[in-house]
Design a protein that fits this description.
70 residues, alpha+beta, 24% helix
């Protein structure tokens, strides 16, 4: 979510509005309840806490385990 001077949330919003159908997942050290309100409307299909990254994370994302639009 934090990319130095750039916000990952802003980047996700730009990417998903510029490239229709692009699937973007937010990945952050923050917990979901710590994310700013605009995170839920940035176009990302999922949020994955960095603490849960590991082997199989991409497959889990594709399987919808971190889909926050449900």
């Amino acid at each position: 979510v934090n990319l130095g001077p750039t916000s990952g949330i802003d980047l996700a919003a730009t990417l998903t509005s510029t490239v229709p159908g692009l699937r973007v997942a937010l990945i952050s050290t923050l917990d979901p309840d710590e994310l700013p309100p605009e995170a839920s409307s940035c176009g990302a299909f999922a949020f994955l806490p960095k603490g849960r990254l590991g082997p199989g994370s991409l497959e889990d994302l594709e399987a919808g385990l971190y889909d926050w639009r449900r």
